[in-house]
Write a structure and sequence with these properties.
405 residues, six-stranded parallel β-sheet, 14 helices
Length: 405
């Protein structure tokens, strides 16, 4: 019996999407029994000392993104300046980051290194290149980048222009971005949707309203602004108070305890559930009739897979989320709003449609949990023997490394 293929997944806790994708990969791959997954956040476990934000300020780069950009809604100029500073951080600290990451690869010996975060993929691939040079026997590891955005914000943000890795895309927009790079020819792989956890695509995993202590006779609305939440949810709760409706509302506040506390103290005329960070997002969305939130690629994909109508807040859309809004509005999967007046109008129409039994959207079949297994099998099969290997075909001996001394 052969050992499971070891996949090292590189992610970040800046925002919830990259982390969610990393854990979705772990669930899909390890669930097959053919893979073993190591999750690596290099910012916290390997190179925190290279974070120039914390070196010259009081917060890490991840904290600035989560607490300022997301929680405070600074998605305009402040966000662009942060992205520029983050890019400079990579430029200034690239060489030591490559060296440290390559050493870590030598320690854990992955068969595939897969990134689910942007901007740092040149560093990851250079580290993998250095690690490959230490291998004298067995199969050489492969590199891969799985884009978790709907599309690249700009060329090179996700896909470096080089030939030594595989690109995994869950949307047609992302696929077109990758296919524009001739060096990636033959190494671009398409999934039927952005990767989401299997429970969002498996009907057997869907929860009933009763199982969540919700009234089965009332429509269910779920409000979710990502893992960091947003005080914008307070405004929406008040706006829903002023629109007569029969719905019950679940506010999923993520790690934003202040938001959850304030919502719990509000006197609202409709039934409410307020949750902090929870592992029951799939259950709440599957029991819902309407999704309200920011246009995160992951949460939007989850709602689409469940056939939910959507109201997406374009006032808090990050630059890379504009492509999500365009797709949702163009396809009629949902509506976008910016002001509370816009929201109230769309909310009233959506609830009326739900009450008339007309709100459900066609299920956007998302085959990503099965697709990623097939893609990873192809990537694993594409590995080639090291130059010193004496056994180029069939089962190969364990990888052997040269000394690091």
């Amino acid at each position: 019996m052969t050992d499971p293929v070891h996949v090292a997944v590189i992610y970040t806790d800046a925002g919830g999407g990259h982390r969610a994708s990393a854990f979705a990969l772990k669930a899909c791959l390890e669930g097959s029994g053919r893979y073993r997954v190591s999750l690596i956040n290099p910012y916290t476990s390997l190179i925190p000392h290279l974070d120039l934000f914390s070196r010259f300020g009081s917060r890490t780069g991840e904290n600035i993104y989560n607490e300022v950009i997301l929680r405070q809604g600074r998605t305009g100029l402040t966000c662009w300046l942060f992205y520029a500073a983050l890019r400079l951080n990579y430029v200034f600290c690239e060489r030591p980051a490559i060296r440290i990451l390559a050493r870590h690869f030598e320690d854990i010996r992955p068969d595939v290194v897969l990134s689910v975060m942007p901007l740092g993929n040149r560093v990851m691939l250079e580290a993998l290149k250095r690690y490959r040079a230490t291998i004298t026997e067995g199969l050489l590891p492969e590199g891969a980048v799985m884009i978790t955005d709907w599309a690249e914000l700009a060329r090179g943000v996700w896909f470096p222009n080089r030939a030594d890795y595989h690109a995994i895309c869950g949307t047609q927009d992302a696929l077109r971005n990758a296919e524009k790079l001739p060096k990636l020819a033959g190494k671009v792989h398409a999934m039927g949707g952005l990767l989401i956890r299997p429970e969002f695509t498996d009907p057997a995993e869907r929860a009933s309203k009763q199982a969540l202590n919700l009234d089965p006779a009332r429509p269910v609305v779920t409000v979710l602004y990502g893992a960091q939440g947003s005080m914008r949810m307070i405004e929406l709760a008040k706006a829903m108070r002023d629109v007569p409706h029969t719905a019950q509302v679940a506010f999923l506040c993520g790690r934003n305890e202040a938001l959850a506390g304030e919502l719990r103290t509000m006197d609202l005329p409709y039934p409410v559930q307020v949750l902090g960070f929870t592992d029951k997002v799939a259950q709440y969305l599957s029991a819902s009739d309407l999704f309200i939130g920011k246009p995160g690629p992951g949460s939007t994909s989850e709602a689409m897979a469940l056939g939910l109508s959507m109201l997406l807040d374009k006032s808090l859309a990050l630059p890379q989320e504009a492509a999500v809004l365009r797709h949702v509005v163009k396809t009629g999967a949902g509506q976008a709003f910016s002001t509370t007046a816009d929201f109230s109008e769309h909310f009233k129409a959506a609830i009326s449609a739900i009450e008339a039994g007309q709100a459900r959207q066609p299920l956007a079949a998302n085959t990503s949990p099965a697709d990623i297994l097939e893609i990873m099998d192809r990537i694993g099969a594409s590995r080639v023997p090291a130059a010193g290997s004496l056994q180029p075909t069939g089962e190969l001996p364990r990888t052997r490394h040269v000394s690091r001394a």
